[in-house]
Design brief:
Structural class: alpha/beta
CATH architecture of the domain at 17-147 and 218-287: 3-Layer(aba) Sandwich
CATH superfamily of the domain at 17-147 and 218-287: Alpha/Beta hydrolase fold, catalytic domain
Radius of gyration: 18 Å
Strand content: 15-25%
Shape: globular
Number of helices: 13
Helix content: 25-40%
Number of strands: 8
CATH class of the domain at 17-147 and 218-287: Alpha Beta
Largest sheet: 8 strands, mixed
Length: about 290
């Protein structure tokens, strides 16, 4: 279980220093496209992912005439090229990290797009700082206690969580990725599997994943307040999502006072990759 420990130094990277910002004691990597003064959109990736998840979608949004938007895609603490140091990885604390990142970048109000576990952070941010959120997009959201299964229960147990993470999470990457896609033969490529494994091999990666999984215990309290949100919200879901079933999207759209649900057919858990163009169109229409 010694491999489940946090990193004591920053990830080595050839990326320019301008892509990094020190936030509340941790160095955060962020892809920031656009110029100050434009309307801003903050993208929050899912569990085990990084800012790279948004690359094609951001390119499509820019090519589709939304050049008036400034797009920010950070690697959350513990993921991608951001620091993987010990700390609180609950949705509420990560939401505060993102607010500090916006402050450091001189950004006031934003539209927030959250995918899967990132949607729980987007919800926490909108609940704690409604004055900072113009619009909210929740994609294949993983944000309810009812969505947590045996894996998440095991991670809550000291010692057992470390054992499960060390033995289970680092194995069978291709099989786990296949659950994310309606058409795994097309999207679970050798390159994608190697990229995921490379991220998991970085120092501190498993410890950050475990801390984030333990932070999901906050879902039960967080979901009690979803009905208080006054932010215009788009709930976007893949019809064939096997990770976050569509019934949770329907529930979320009912519970949020100002939400509408868009369902994309022949699409699994990662619409920003598997169904990028219809996802981009839905986002562009909503953000306009």
């Amino acid at each position: 279980m010694g491999c489940v420990s946090f990193a004591h130094r920053s990830v080595e990277s050839e990326r320019p220093a301008s892509e990094f910002t020190s936030v509340r004691g941790r160095r955060i990597h962020v892809v920031d496209s656009g110029r100050p003064g434009k309307r801003s959109v903050l993208f929050i990736h899912g569990y085990g992912a990084s800012s790279a998840s948004w690359r094609e979608l951001a390119d499509e949004l820019g090519a589709g005439g939304t050049g008036e938007l400034r797009l920010l895609a950070p690697d959350l603490p513990g993921f991608g090229l951001s620091d993987r140091t010990a700390g609180d990885y609950s949705p509420e604390t990560l939401a505060e990290d993102l607010i500090a990142l916006l402050d450091a970048r001189g950004i006031g109000r934003v539209s927030v797009v959250g995918h899967s576990w990132g949607a729980s952070i987007a919800l926490a941010l909108a609940l704690r700082h409604p004055e900072r959120v113009e619009k909210l997009v929740l994609m294949s959201a993983f944000c309810y206690a009812d969505q947590l299964g045996p894996f998440h229960e095991w991670t809550q147990v000291p010692g057992l969580g470390e054992l499960v993470m060390a033995l289970f999470y680092r194995s069978n990457t291709a099989a786990k990725l296949a659950l994310d896609f309606q058409d795994p033969d097309r999207f679970v490529t050798e390159e994608r599997v190697e990229r995921v494994d490379e991220n998991l091999d970085r120092p501190g990666a498993l410890a950050a994943l475990l801390a984030a999984a333990r932070g999901m215990a906050h879902f039960a309290e967080l979901e009690r307040h979803y009905g208080e949100l006054g932010v215009p919200t788009l709930v976007l879901w893949g019809r064939e999502d096997r990770v976050a079933r569509l019934r949770f999207g329907e529930r979320l759209a009912r519970e949020l006072p100002h939400a509408r649900l868009v369902v994309i057919g022949e699409c699994g858990h990662i619409p920003e990759i598997e169904c990028m163009r219809p996802t981009a169109r839905a986002l562009a229409d909503f953000l306009r």
